[in-house]
Amino acid sequence: MNSLANKRILLGVTGGIAAYKSAELTRLLRRAGAEVRVVMTAAAADFITPLTLQALSGQPVYSRWDEAGAAMGHIELARWADRVLVAPATADTLARLAQGRADDLLSALCLATTAPLYLAPAMNQAMWRHAATRDNVETLRSRGVRLLGPAEGEQACGDTGPGRMLEPEALLAALSASFESGALAGLKVLVTAGPTREAIDPVRFMGNRSSGKMGYAVAAAAAEAGARVQLVSGPVALPCPPRVERVMVESAAEMLDAVLERVADTDIFVAAAAVADYRPQAAAADKIKKTVQPLTLRLEPAPDILATVSRLPQRPFCVGFAAETADLERHARKKRLAKSLDLVAANRVGRGLGFEADDNELHLFWEGGDARLARAPKPRLARLLIEHIAARYRAGLAHPPQGDDHADHTA
Ligand code: PMT
């Protein structure tokens, strides 16, 4: 199964004979739908030209600090990646990474990234077996670095033994599998995403700045975790994530109907949509004409989808978002109780945060616990959120506090 669509792979290429295989790996990653950025060490350029990897990745290839600065700063590049794969990773590279060196661009990126780091070792069998390399491998493994390979077999130098880089197809499969956690295998997840539009007249509406990126990332992450995912989406310009069933709606009322139609068959409900809190009491039948007089719109509360679901007698595990401009923790805790949620994901919004942005930062609250998810691209954050949801769901914390006792409908 391919889970690489829209994933950001930072491919590090170091100076070994297997560097020629990086070209095929780059091609396969692109064909699987991944975005690839290549970082080469100076020694790698002796084995394969940057131009080849630039043509195959469709992106500039980075090897020096100034190049990284020109297109994307090295910290930005480290943050950009969902996975860092160094293939081939020479004995020297393993040693440098084990030491935590930062004196070339690739080593610095590996140190700066919070994305999982994968290494595909490639070296002579005696170098692989050497005690120094064994120690470096152990050090790296103990820090959570994943080693892919090496394979055994005939080597370019004529030796036979362990040290061959895994073939590009095997590396592709391993990277793809790394996005498949199976944490929600067998479960049904319903997600809302995007804004709603509340009609004022046939051509105007009240809406908000939600792009749908966060909710779509949650739907994609749930599908990768093995769930059957249905996504009820407000109007956005995003493609449907792979293996997700999507229904498009416009207003809060339509979103509520679409959710209620599906919720009986749902284990976990995640409300990431920015649903209108108020809507015009009545939409004008014809376009409202412009006059010099001020215009007053009378608004009424829109249905609260999450609160409606969480009060159903047979409710799923309910996850809400809390979008706050101030006093995040207090409001989020209050919202969790007011809406009887199993978990709430709070994010600061406004002034370029939360809405529309590619990155986000979340503070999760549940009965008796909380966790902070540091700033990261929304897809990565969504995968972490799904891990937390799966853990809470599996821990059997599906019995929320009795929110009605504390209900405060201003939350
Ligand atoms: O779409 P993006 O551009 O990526 O931006 C992401 C986001 C900021 C929209 C997202 O991370 C987020 O915070 N979504 C919830 C926005 C919101 O409406 O928050 P709220 O605090 O007003 O609502 C609390 C919860 O109740 C939310 O889960 C919301 O979906 C739900 N709700 C609110 C009102 C309503 N009428 N019905 C609801 O179901």
Descriptive overview:
The protein is of the alpha/beta class. It folds into 2 domains: 2-178, 3-Layer(aba) Sandwich (Rossmann fold); 188-398, CoaB-like (Rossmann fold). The chain has helices spanning 21-31, 50-57, 65-71, 74-80, 91-99, 105-112, 125-129, 131-142, 168-178, 213-224, 252-262, 305-310, 328-338, 378-394, 403-406, and strands spanning 8-13, 35-40, 83-89, 117-121, 146-147, 151-154, 160-164, 188-193, 198-199, 205-206, 228-233, 244-248, 268-271, 278-280, 299-301, 317-324, 343-348, 359-366, 369-377. The strands form 5 sheets. It has an 8-stranded mixed beta sheet, with helices on both faces. A 5-stranded parallel beta sheet has the order 2-1-3-4-5, with helices on both faces. Strands 6-7 form a two-stranded antiparallel ribbon. α5 (91-99) packs across α8. The protein is elongated, with a radius of gyration of 25 Å. Ligand PMT binds next to α10, α12 and β16.
